[in-house]
Specification:
489 residues, 20 helices, Growth Hormone, Chain: A, two-stranded antiparallel ribbon, disordered N terminus, mainly alpha
Length: 489
Protein backbone atom coordinates (compact mmCIF):
# COMPACT_ATOMS: atom_id res chain seq x y z
CA UNK A 1 0.00 0.00 0.00
CA UNK A 2 1.31 3.46 -0.88
CA UNK A 3 2.42 5.62 2.01
CA UNK A 4 1.12 9.11 2.61
CA UNK A 5 4.38 10.69 1.51
CA UNK A 6 4.52 8.58 -1.62
CA UNK A 7 0.95 9.50 -2.40
CA UNK A 8 1.70 13.18 -2.00
CA UNK A 9 4.62 12.86 -4.38
CA UNK A 10 2.51 10.95 -6.86
CA UNK A 11 -0.30 13.48 -6.78
CA UNK A 12 1.93 16.48 -7.28
CA UNK A 13 3.68 15.29 -10.41
CA UNK A 14 3.21 13.01 -13.39
CA UNK A 15 3.30 9.34 -12.36
CA UNK A 16 5.44 6.63 -13.78
CA UNK A 17 2.59 4.14 -13.54
CA UNK A 18 -0.23 6.61 -14.07
CA UNK A 19 -1.93 5.98 -10.73
CA UNK A 20 -2.36 7.59 -7.35
CA UNK A 21 -4.11 6.68 -4.13
CA UNK A 22 -7.37 8.27 -3.09
CA UNK A 23 -9.22 7.44 0.07
CA UNK A 24 -12.72 7.87 1.44
CA UNK A 25 -13.00 7.25 5.13
CA UNK A 26 -10.51 4.45 5.84
CA UNK A 27 -10.78 2.90 2.37
CA UNK A 28 -8.02 3.32 -0.17
CA UNK A 29 -8.68 3.07 -3.89
CA UNK A 30 -6.35 3.30 -6.85
CA UNK A 31 -7.19 6.10 -9.26
CA UNK A 32 -5.43 7.05 -12.50
CA UNK A 33 -4.22 10.65 -12.46
CA UNK A 34 -4.13 10.96 -16.25
CA UNK A 35 -7.96 11.27 -16.63
CA UNK A 36 -8.26 13.65 -13.68
CA UNK A 37 -8.66 16.84 -15.77
CA UNK A 38 -11.37 15.21 -17.89
CA UNK A 39 -13.09 13.81 -14.80
CA UNK A 40 -13.15 17.19 -13.05
CA UNK A 41 -14.45 18.91 -16.17
CA UNK A 42 -17.12 16.26 -16.72
CA UNK A 43 -18.39 16.68 -13.17
CA UNK A 44 -18.45 20.46 -13.63
CA UNK A 45 -20.40 20.26 -16.90
CA UNK A 46 -22.88 17.71 -15.51
CA UNK A 47 -23.58 19.82 -12.45
CA UNK A 48 -24.18 22.91 -14.60
CA UNK A 49 -26.58 20.98 -16.83
CA UNK A 50 -28.43 19.36 -13.90
CA UNK A 51 -28.70 22.65 -12.03
CA UNK A 52 -30.14 24.48 -15.05
CA UNK A 53 -32.47 21.75 -16.30
CA UNK A 54 -35.44 23.33 -14.53
CA UNK A 55 -35.36 26.51 -16.64
CA UNK A 56 -37.18 25.28 -19.77
CA UNK A 57 -39.60 23.14 -17.74
CA UNK A 58 -41.39 25.85 -15.79
CA UNK A 59 -44.49 26.00 -18.00
CA UNK A 60 -44.60 22.20 -18.32
CA UNK A 61 -44.34 21.78 -14.55
CA UNK A 62 -47.24 24.20 -14.08
CA UNK A 63 -49.48 22.32 -16.51
CA UNK A 64 -48.40 18.83 -15.41
CA UNK A 65 -48.77 19.42 -11.68
CA UNK A 66 -51.65 21.92 -12.01
CA UNK A 67 -49.88 24.73 -10.16
CA UNK A 68 -49.35 28.39 -10.97
CA UNK A 69 -46.42 29.60 -13.07
CA UNK A 70 -45.13 31.48 -10.02
CA UNK A 71 -45.04 28.23 -8.04
CA UNK A 72 -43.44 26.33 -10.92
CA UNK A 73 -40.77 29.04 -11.19
CA UNK A 74 -39.39 27.77 -7.89
CA UNK A 75 -38.16 24.60 -9.61
CA UNK A 76 -35.45 26.83 -11.08
CA UNK A 77 -35.12 29.40 -8.31
CA UNK A 78 -34.61 26.89 -5.49
CA UNK A 79 -31.72 25.17 -7.26
CA UNK A 80 -29.95 28.47 -7.93
CA UNK A 81 -30.44 29.56 -4.32
CA UNK A 82 -29.15 26.26 -2.95
CA UNK A 83 -26.09 26.45 -5.16
CA UNK A 84 -25.28 29.99 -4.11
CA UNK A 85 -25.75 29.59 -0.36
CA UNK A 86 -23.99 26.22 -0.15
CA UNK A 87 -20.92 27.27 -2.14
CA UNK A 88 -18.94 29.07 0.62
CA UNK A 89 -19.88 26.49 3.28
CA UNK A 90 -18.94 23.48 1.15
CA UNK A 91 -15.82 25.32 0.03
CA UNK A 92 -14.61 25.53 3.63
CA UNK A 93 -16.02 22.18 4.75
CA UNK A 94 -14.34 20.49 1.78
CA UNK A 95 -10.94 22.05 2.30
CA UNK A 96 -8.02 19.71 2.90
CA UNK A 97 -8.48 16.04 3.70
CA UNK A 98 -12.28 16.29 3.83
CA UNK A 99 -12.52 17.25 0.16
CA UNK A 100 -13.17 13.79 -1.32
CA UNK A 101 -15.78 12.75 1.29
CA UNK A 102 -17.59 16.10 0.91
CA UNK A 103 -17.67 15.82 -2.89
CA UNK A 104 -18.96 12.24 -2.80
CA UNK A 105 -21.52 13.02 -0.10
CA UNK A 106 -22.80 16.03 -2.06
CA UNK A 107 -23.08 13.99 -5.25
CA UNK A 108 -24.92 11.31 -3.28
CA UNK A 109 -27.42 13.91 -2.08
CA UNK A 110 -27.85 15.07 -5.67
CA UNK A 111 -28.59 11.52 -6.85
CA UNK A 112 -31.20 11.06 -4.12
CA UNK A 113 -32.72 14.44 -4.92
CA UNK A 114 -32.80 13.54 -8.61
CA UNK A 115 -34.80 10.42 -7.78
CA UNK A 116 -37.42 12.66 -6.12
CA UNK A 117 -37.73 14.72 -9.30
CA UNK A 118 -38.42 11.61 -11.40
CA UNK A 119 -41.06 10.03 -9.17
CA UNK A 120 -44.70 11.05 -9.86
CA UNK A 121 -44.92 13.19 -6.73
CA UNK A 122 -46.47 16.65 -6.14
CA UNK A 123 -44.64 19.97 -6.24
CA UNK A 124 -43.12 20.02 -2.73
CA UNK A 125 -41.06 16.79 -3.13
CA UNK A 126 -40.04 18.02 -6.57
CA UNK A 127 -38.76 21.25 -5.03
CA UNK A 128 -36.82 19.28 -2.42
CA UNK A 129 -35.22 17.29 -5.21
CA UNK A 130 -34.39 20.41 -7.18
CA UNK A 131 -32.84 22.00 -4.08
CA UNK A 132 -30.62 18.93 -3.71
CA UNK A 133 -29.63 19.15 -7.36
CA UNK A 134 -28.71 22.80 -6.91
CA UNK A 135 -26.04 21.92 -4.37
CA UNK A 136 -24.00 20.57 -7.29
CA UNK A 137 -23.42 24.14 -8.42
CA UNK A 138 -21.25 24.50 -5.30
CA UNK A 139 -18.82 21.77 -6.37
CA UNK A 140 -16.94 23.86 -8.93
CA UNK A 141 -14.53 25.46 -6.41
CA UNK A 142 -13.74 22.02 -4.95
CA UNK A 143 -12.97 20.73 -8.46
CA UNK A 144 -10.62 23.69 -8.91
CA UNK A 145 -8.92 23.04 -5.56
CA UNK A 146 -8.31 19.42 -6.54
CA UNK A 147 -6.87 20.43 -9.90
CA UNK A 148 -4.55 22.93 -8.26
CA UNK A 149 -3.28 20.36 -5.76
CA UNK A 150 -2.91 17.27 -7.96
CA UNK A 151 -1.91 18.58 -11.38
CA UNK A 152 1.21 20.32 -12.59
CA UNK A 153 0.95 24.08 -12.96
CA UNK A 154 0.15 24.15 -16.67
CA UNK A 155 -2.50 21.42 -16.60
CA UNK A 156 -3.98 22.84 -13.40
CA UNK A 157 -4.38 26.27 -14.98
CA UNK A 158 -6.10 24.94 -18.10
CA UNK A 159 -8.34 22.59 -16.10
CA UNK A 160 -9.40 25.32 -13.67
CA UNK A 161 -10.18 27.61 -16.60
CA UNK A 162 -12.40 24.97 -18.23
CA UNK A 163 -14.21 24.20 -14.97
CA UNK A 164 -14.95 27.91 -14.58
CA UNK A 165 -16.26 28.05 -18.15
CA UNK A 166 -18.36 24.91 -17.62
CA UNK A 167 -20.16 26.42 -14.64
CA UNK A 168 -21.63 29.08 -16.94
CA UNK A 169 -21.52 27.75 -20.50
CA UNK A 170 -22.83 24.32 -19.49
CA UNK A 171 -26.27 25.89 -19.19
CA UNK A 172 -26.42 26.01 -22.98
CA UNK A 173 -26.53 22.22 -23.15
CA UNK A 174 -29.09 21.78 -20.39
CA UNK A 175 -31.77 24.05 -21.86
CA UNK A 176 -32.25 22.44 -25.30
CA UNK A 177 -31.83 18.93 -23.84
CA UNK A 178 -34.54 19.54 -21.24
CA UNK A 179 -36.82 21.19 -23.78
CA UNK A 180 -36.51 18.34 -26.28
CA UNK A 181 -37.04 15.57 -23.72
CA UNK A 182 -40.06 17.38 -22.29
CA UNK A 183 -41.60 17.60 -25.75
CA UNK A 184 -40.96 13.87 -26.27
CA UNK A 185 -41.92 12.39 -22.90
CA UNK A 186 -42.88 15.09 -20.42
CA UNK A 187 -41.07 16.59 -17.46
CA UNK A 188 -40.29 13.25 -15.82
CA UNK A 189 -38.23 12.14 -18.83
CA UNK A 190 -36.22 15.36 -18.67
CA UNK A 191 -35.63 14.88 -14.96
CA UNK A 192 -34.75 11.22 -15.60
CA UNK A 193 -31.95 12.41 -17.89
CA UNK A 194 -30.71 14.63 -15.07
CA UNK A 195 -30.78 11.62 -12.74
CA UNK A 196 -28.72 9.61 -15.21
CA UNK A 197 -26.16 12.40 -15.50
CA UNK A 198 -25.98 12.69 -11.70
CA UNK A 199 -25.25 8.98 -11.37
CA UNK A 200 -22.51 9.29 -14.00
CA UNK A 201 -20.95 12.19 -12.08
CA UNK A 202 -21.02 10.19 -8.83
CA UNK A 203 -19.39 7.15 -10.44
CA UNK A 204 -16.71 9.28 -12.09
CA UNK A 205 -15.98 11.07 -8.80
CA UNK A 206 -15.83 7.79 -6.87
CA UNK A 207 -13.43 6.34 -9.42
CA UNK A 208 -11.19 9.30 -10.18
CA UNK A 209 -11.57 12.09 -7.61
CA UNK A 210 -8.42 11.94 -5.44
CA UNK A 211 -8.02 12.42 -1.72
CA UNK A 212 -6.30 15.60 -0.64
CA UNK A 213 -2.97 15.45 1.13
CA UNK A 214 -3.46 18.90 2.63
CA UNK A 215 -4.17 19.07 6.38
CA UNK A 216 -7.75 18.99 7.60
CA UNK A 217 -9.10 22.51 7.75
CA UNK A 218 -11.04 23.60 10.85
CA UNK A 219 -14.79 23.08 10.56
CA UNK A 220 -16.69 26.21 9.48
CA UNK A 221 -18.03 28.34 12.28
CA UNK A 222 -21.78 27.70 12.69
CA UNK A 223 -22.71 31.32 13.40
CA UNK A 224 -20.69 32.64 10.46
CA UNK A 225 -22.20 30.00 8.18
CA UNK A 226 -25.74 30.90 9.20
CA UNK A 227 -25.16 34.64 8.82
CA UNK A 228 -23.61 34.25 5.36
CA UNK A 229 -26.27 31.79 4.24
CA UNK A 230 -29.07 34.04 5.47
CA UNK A 231 -27.58 37.17 3.91
CA UNK A 232 -26.98 35.60 0.51
CA UNK A 233 -30.36 33.85 0.54
CA UNK A 234 -32.32 37.02 1.31
CA UNK A 235 -30.30 39.06 -1.19
CA UNK A 236 -30.80 36.59 -4.03
CA UNK A 237 -34.49 36.18 -3.26
CA UNK A 238 -35.03 39.94 -3.40
CA UNK A 239 -32.84 40.52 -6.44
CA UNK A 240 -34.40 37.65 -8.34
CA UNK A 241 -38.01 38.83 -8.01
CA UNK A 242 -38.68 41.51 -10.59
CA UNK A 243 -42.36 41.66 -9.60
CA UNK A 244 -41.33 42.57 -6.05
CA UNK A 245 -39.48 45.66 -7.32
CA UNK A 246 -42.41 46.57 -9.56
CA UNK A 247 -45.25 46.13 -7.09
CA UNK A 248 -43.70 46.26 -3.61
CA UNK A 249 -40.67 48.54 -3.81
CA UNK A 250 -40.58 49.19 -0.05
CA UNK A 251 -40.49 45.46 0.70
CA UNK A 252 -37.71 44.96 -1.87
CA UNK A 253 -35.59 47.74 -0.38
CA UNK A 254 -36.25 46.35 3.11
CA UNK A 255 -35.07 42.94 1.95
CA UNK A 256 -31.83 44.41 0.61
CA UNK A 257 -31.28 46.26 3.89
CA UNK A 258 -31.87 43.05 5.86
CA UNK A 259 -29.42 41.19 3.63
CA UNK A 260 -26.79 43.89 4.12
CA UNK A 261 -27.28 43.77 7.89
CA UNK A 262 -26.78 40.00 7.91
CA UNK A 263 -23.71 40.23 5.67
CA UNK A 264 -22.26 43.00 7.84
CA UNK A 265 -22.77 40.86 10.93
CA UNK A 266 -21.11 37.98 9.08
CA UNK A 267 -18.12 40.19 8.23
CA UNK A 268 -17.69 41.23 11.86
CA UNK A 269 -17.95 37.58 12.96
CA UNK A 270 -15.40 36.50 10.37
CA UNK A 271 -12.89 39.09 11.51
CA UNK A 272 -13.08 37.76 15.06
CA UNK A 273 -12.33 34.14 14.09
CA UNK A 274 -8.91 32.57 13.96
CA UNK A 275 -10.12 30.27 11.16
CA UNK A 276 -12.77 32.21 9.22
CA UNK A 277 -15.19 30.71 6.72
CA UNK A 278 -13.73 33.05 4.09
CA UNK A 279 -10.34 34.68 4.52
CA UNK A 280 -11.43 38.29 4.09
CA UNK A 281 -7.82 39.39 4.17
CA UNK A 282 -7.57 38.20 0.57
CA UNK A 283 -10.03 40.92 -0.42
CA UNK A 284 -7.47 43.50 0.62
CA UNK A 285 -5.44 42.50 -2.41
CA UNK A 286 -6.26 44.78 -5.30
CA UNK A 287 -6.43 41.91 -7.80
CA UNK A 288 -8.88 39.85 -5.72
CA UNK A 289 -11.13 42.80 -4.85
CA UNK A 290 -11.06 44.03 -8.44
CA UNK A 291 -11.75 40.57 -9.85
CA UNK A 292 -14.83 40.14 -7.71
CA UNK A 293 -16.05 43.65 -8.52
CA UNK A 294 -15.56 42.98 -12.24
CA UNK A 295 -17.36 39.64 -11.89
CA UNK A 296 -20.33 41.28 -10.18
CA UNK A 297 -20.75 44.06 -12.74
CA UNK A 298 -19.97 41.92 -15.79
CA UNK A 299 -22.35 39.25 -14.49
CA UNK A 300 -25.17 41.80 -14.53
CA UNK A 301 -24.47 42.65 -18.16
CA UNK A 302 -23.94 39.08 -19.33
CA UNK A 303 -27.18 37.75 -17.92
CA UNK A 304 -29.12 40.83 -19.01
CA UNK A 305 -28.14 40.18 -22.63
CA UNK A 306 -28.75 36.44 -22.34
CA UNK A 307 -32.24 37.11 -20.98
CA UNK A 308 -33.06 39.73 -23.63
CA UNK A 309 -31.99 37.58 -26.58
CA UNK A 310 -33.84 34.52 -25.30
CA UNK A 311 -37.00 36.53 -24.73
CA UNK A 312 -36.74 38.41 -28.03
CA UNK A 313 -36.50 35.33 -30.27
CA UNK A 314 -39.53 33.74 -28.56
CA UNK A 315 -41.74 36.81 -29.11
CA UNK A 316 -44.46 36.02 -31.70
CA UNK A 317 -43.99 37.67 -35.10
CA UNK A 318 -47.52 39.07 -34.84
CA UNK A 319 -46.22 41.56 -32.26
CA UNK A 320 -44.18 43.23 -35.01
CA UNK A 321 -40.79 41.83 -34.11
CA UNK A 322 -39.33 38.58 -32.84
CA UNK A 323 -39.37 35.15 -34.45
CA UNK A 324 -41.90 33.13 -32.44
CA UNK A 325 -39.44 30.34 -31.63
CA UNK A 326 -40.54 27.45 -29.42
CA UNK A 327 -38.89 26.82 -26.06
CA UNK A 328 -36.79 24.03 -27.55
CA UNK A 329 -35.71 26.05 -30.60
CA UNK A 330 -34.93 29.05 -28.43
CA UNK A 331 -32.85 26.72 -26.26
CA UNK A 332 -30.83 25.81 -29.34
CA UNK A 333 -29.77 29.47 -29.43
CA UNK A 334 -27.71 28.67 -26.35
CA UNK A 335 -25.79 25.88 -28.07
CA UNK A 336 -23.40 28.19 -29.98
CA UNK A 337 -23.12 30.21 -26.76
CA UNK A 338 -21.85 27.11 -24.96
CA UNK A 339 -19.77 25.65 -27.80
CA UNK A 340 -17.92 28.90 -28.46
CA UNK A 341 -17.56 29.44 -24.72
CA UNK A 342 -15.87 26.08 -24.30
CA UNK A 343 -13.62 26.74 -27.29
CA UNK A 344 -12.60 30.06 -25.74
CA UNK A 345 -11.81 28.30 -22.49
CA UNK A 346 -9.83 25.61 -24.29
CA UNK A 347 -7.62 28.04 -26.19
CA UNK A 348 -7.19 30.48 -23.31
CA UNK A 349 -3.84 28.91 -22.22
CA UNK A 350 -2.47 29.60 -25.71
CA UNK A 351 -3.86 33.12 -25.66
CA UNK A 352 -2.27 33.72 -22.28
CA UNK A 353 1.14 33.14 -23.80
CA UNK A 354 0.62 36.55 -25.38
CA UNK A 355 -1.82 38.21 -22.98
CA UNK A 356 -1.85 38.29 -19.20
CA UNK A 357 -4.97 37.04 -17.40
CA UNK A 358 -6.11 40.63 -16.56
CA UNK A 359 -5.63 41.63 -20.22
CA UNK A 360 -7.72 38.64 -21.31
CA UNK A 361 -10.48 39.70 -18.90
CA UNK A 362 -10.40 43.15 -20.50
CA UNK A 363 -10.55 41.73 -24.03
CA UNK A 364 -13.39 39.36 -23.12
CA UNK A 365 -15.40 42.20 -21.59
CA UNK A 366 -14.95 44.21 -24.78
CA UNK A 367 -16.35 41.27 -26.78
CA UNK A 368 -19.47 41.25 -24.56
CA UNK A 369 -19.95 44.97 -25.24
CA UNK A 370 -19.70 44.23 -28.98
CA UNK A 371 -22.42 41.58 -28.56
CA UNK A 372 -24.67 44.17 -26.91
CA UNK A 373 -24.06 46.64 -29.72
CA UNK A 374 -24.83 44.05 -32.39
CA UNK A 375 -28.09 43.04 -30.73
CA UNK A 376 -29.06 46.71 -30.36
CA UNK A 377 -28.68 47.54 -34.06
CA UNK A 378 -29.00 44.27 -36.03
CA UNK A 379 -31.85 42.01 -35.01
CA UNK A 380 -34.22 42.31 -37.95
CA UNK A 381 -33.25 38.78 -39.04
CA UNK A 382 -32.50 35.78 -36.87
CA UNK A 383 -28.82 36.02 -37.82
CA UNK A 384 -28.33 39.15 -35.70
CA UNK A 385 -29.39 37.68 -32.34
CA UNK A 386 -27.65 34.41 -33.20
CA UNK A 387 -24.31 36.11 -33.87
CA UNK A 388 -24.79 38.29 -30.77
CA UNK A 389 -25.37 35.16 -28.67
CA UNK A 390 -22.26 33.57 -30.19
CA UNK A 391 -20.19 36.65 -29.39
CA UNK A 392 -21.60 36.58 -25.87
CA UNK A 393 -20.46 32.97 -25.53
CA UNK A 394 -16.98 33.95 -26.71
CA UNK A 395 -16.81 36.78 -24.19
CA UNK A 396 -18.23 34.77 -21.30
CA UNK A 397 -15.95 31.82 -22.06
CA UNK A 398 -12.78 33.89 -22.20
CA UNK A 399 -13.83 35.93 -19.16
CA UNK A 400 -14.63 32.83 -17.11
CA UNK A 401 -11.37 31.14 -18.13
CA UNK A 402 -9.21 34.12 -17.18
CA UNK A 403 -10.93 35.08 -13.90
CA UNK A 404 -9.58 32.16 -11.79
CA UNK A 405 -6.03 32.94 -12.93
CA UNK A 406 -6.37 36.52 -11.69
CA UNK A 407 -7.62 35.42 -8.28
CA UNK A 408 -5.46 32.33 -7.73
CA UNK A 409 -2.27 34.16 -8.67
CA UNK A 410 -2.39 35.79 -5.22
CA UNK A 411 -4.33 33.10 -3.31
CA UNK A 412 -2.65 30.38 -1.16
CA UNK A 413 -3.37 26.84 -2.43
CA UNK A 414 -5.31 25.89 0.71
CA UNK A 415 -7.68 28.83 0.12
CA UNK A 416 -8.49 27.90 -3.49
CA UNK A 417 -11.99 26.54 -2.84
CA UNK A 418 -12.87 29.39 -0.48
CA UNK A 419 -11.63 32.15 -2.82
CA UNK A 420 -13.33 30.71 -5.90
CA UNK A 421 -16.46 30.01 -3.87
CA UNK A 422 -16.76 33.70 -3.03
CA UNK A 423 -16.27 34.57 -6.69
CA UNK A 424 -19.03 32.12 -7.63
CA UNK A 425 -21.42 33.67 -5.12
CA UNK A 426 -20.60 37.13 -6.49
CA UNK A 427 -21.33 35.83 -9.99
CA UNK A 428 -24.70 34.44 -8.82
CA UNK A 429 -25.60 37.84 -7.38
CA UNK A 430 -24.59 39.53 -10.64
CA UNK A 431 -26.65 37.08 -12.71
CA UNK A 432 -29.67 37.62 -10.45
CA UNK A 433 -29.32 41.38 -10.83
CA UNK A 434 -29.02 41.03 -14.60
CA UNK A 435 -32.11 38.86 -14.85
CA UNK A 436 -34.18 41.22 -12.71
CA UNK A 437 -32.88 44.33 -14.46
CA UNK A 438 -33.80 42.91 -17.88
CA UNK A 439 -37.32 42.16 -16.64
CA UNK A 440 -37.70 45.66 -15.16
CA UNK A 441 -36.38 47.43 -18.26
CA UNK A 442 -38.66 45.50 -20.58
CA UNK A 443 -41.63 45.97 -18.23
CA UNK A 444 -41.01 49.71 -18.34
CA UNK A 445 -41.37 49.56 -22.13
CA UNK A 446 -44.53 47.43 -22.10
CA UNK A 447 -47.66 49.49 -22.89
CA UNK A 448 -50.56 49.30 -20.46
CA UNK A 449 -52.62 46.19 -21.13
CA UNK A 450 -50.02 44.72 -23.50
CA UNK A 451 -48.27 41.40 -22.98
CA UNK A 452 -45.04 42.13 -24.84
CA UNK A 453 -42.71 45.13 -24.61
CA UNK A 454 -42.06 47.41 -27.56
CA UNK A 455 -39.12 46.71 -29.84
CA UNK A 456 -37.53 49.93 -28.58
CA UNK A 457 -37.49 48.39 -25.10
CA UNK A 458 -34.98 45.80 -26.25
CA UNK A 459 -32.85 48.52 -27.81
CA UNK A 460 -32.85 50.50 -24.57
CA UNK A 461 -32.04 47.40 -22.53
CA UNK A 462 -29.15 46.57 -24.88
CA UNK A 463 -27.54 50.00 -24.60
CA UNK A 464 -28.02 50.15 -20.84
CA UNK A 465 -26.45 46.69 -20.58
CA UNK A 466 -23.55 47.86 -22.75
CA UNK A 467 -23.01 50.82 -20.40
CA UNK A 468 -23.01 48.53 -17.36
CA UNK A 469 -20.53 46.19 -19.05
CA UNK A 470 -18.37 49.20 -19.93
CA UNK A 471 -18.09 49.80 -16.18
CA UNK A 472 -16.79 46.25 -15.81
CA UNK A 473 -14.34 47.03 -18.62
CA UNK A 474 -13.02 49.97 -16.62
CA UNK A 475 -12.66 47.83 -13.49
CA UNK A 476 -10.73 45.22 -15.47
CA UNK A 477 -7.92 47.71 -16.06
CA UNK A 478 -7.29 47.79 -12.30
CA UNK A 479 -6.56 44.05 -12.23
CA UNK A 480 -3.20 44.34 -13.91
CA UNK A 481 -0.32 44.51 -11.42
CA UNK A 482 1.51 47.80 -11.53
CA UNK A 483 4.53 47.54 -13.79
CA UNK A 484 3.54 44.10 -15.10
CA UNK A 485 4.46 42.97 -18.56
CA UNK A 486 1.81 42.30 -21.14
CA UNK A 487 2.52 38.59 -21.40
CA UNK A 488 2.50 36.33 -18.36
CA UNK A 489 5.77 34.90 -17.07
Amino acid sequence: MTSASDTADTNSADDTDGTATAGIGTAIVRTPTTPLPRALLLIGVVMAVVGSVGGPLITSVATTLHVSLAAAQWTLTVSLLTGAVSTPVLGRLGSGARRRPVVLATLGVIVVGSVLTVLPLPLVPLLVGRAAQGSGLALGPLMMASAREHLDKQRAASTIAMISVASTAGVGFGYPLAGYLTDVGGIRLAYAAALGLSVVAFVVAFRYFPASQQPVAPAPDAAASLLLTGGVLVLLLVLGEASLWQDHLTVAIGGVVLALVLLTAWTLRERSLANPLVDLRLLRHRAVAGANAAMLVAGVGMYLLLSCITRYVQTPRAVGYGFGLSTFTAGLFLVPFSVVGFIAGRISPQIRKHLSAPALVTAATAVVIAAFALFAVARATVAGPLVAMTLLGLGVGAFSAAMPAVILEVTPPQETASAMGVNQVVRSIGFSLGSTLSALLLAAHTPAGAVFPTDEGFTAAAWIGAAITALALGISFTLRPRGAATAPP
